[in-house]
Known about the structure:
Blueprint: E1 5-8, H1 14-20, H2 27-32, E2 37-41, H3 47-50, H4 53-62, E3 66-76, H5 86-95, E4 100-106, H6 115-124, E5 127-131, H7 140-153, E6 157-162, H8 165-168, H9 173-180, E7 184-189, E8 191-195, E9 198-202, H10 210-215, E10 224-226, H11 235-248
Parallel strand pairs: 1-2, 1-10, 2-3, 3-4, 4-5, 5-6, 6-7, 7-10
Antiparallel strand pairs: 8-9
Amino acid sequence: MKRKIIVVTAAYGHDRIQSLGGQAAVLPFIAAAGADGVEIRRELFTPDELNALPALAADIESHNLLACYSAPEPLCLFDGTLNPELPALLQEARTLNALWLKVSLGHFQHKSALELLRGWLADSGMALVVENDQTDCGQLAPMQRFKAACRVLDLPVTLTFDMANWLWVGESPEEAARQLAPAVSYIHVKAAIAHHYHYRAIAPDQADGRWAELLNQLPADVPRGIEFPLEGRDLTAVTRRYVNLLREE
């Protein structure tokens, strides 16, 4: 079975996306590169684009691509309660005919906060995946507690494993993979190098072999998302290069 490769529109950079006229403009590059799908990022929308989700959904379908939807929102607010924006975000994902909505964990505290989530997911008919982000909320311990809570509550929520974000929060990606792999349904592939007291995302073949070894610790049959920079004059060619690399690795 062919491994599914998703291209995250943010990989082309905010400025490039805006200069091209929006996220729909990169769909031809993604499709021509042989990718299976696109991850649409809510933070890259203009107000006009946000009001035209059905048109974007049709455009994605016309390129024979699957859609995923990412919103820069936490699942849980600072006080531990569920984010009240989630039902609206789930409906936006449904309008896009997305496979899932992706959010960050936020300030998850206790499984009791998740009781409402079952109804929201059922009402929307949409899958939800939760990602480790580059804040303290994305550290391994809260992600483990959340995974355990979903298991106890039998909630149909899985994890997006961002391979490099663990470095931003001072965690071992390999240890995170050992602890979380069974709950992972989507992988954000990127490597990172130290840069001005922080890290900078880079393409995996510009790093050492750690990324490939880490991928081997994660489920082999889940979609892989390209979230590292895709740069160059020929965006189709550079995208195709990494689609092929991740599909074969």
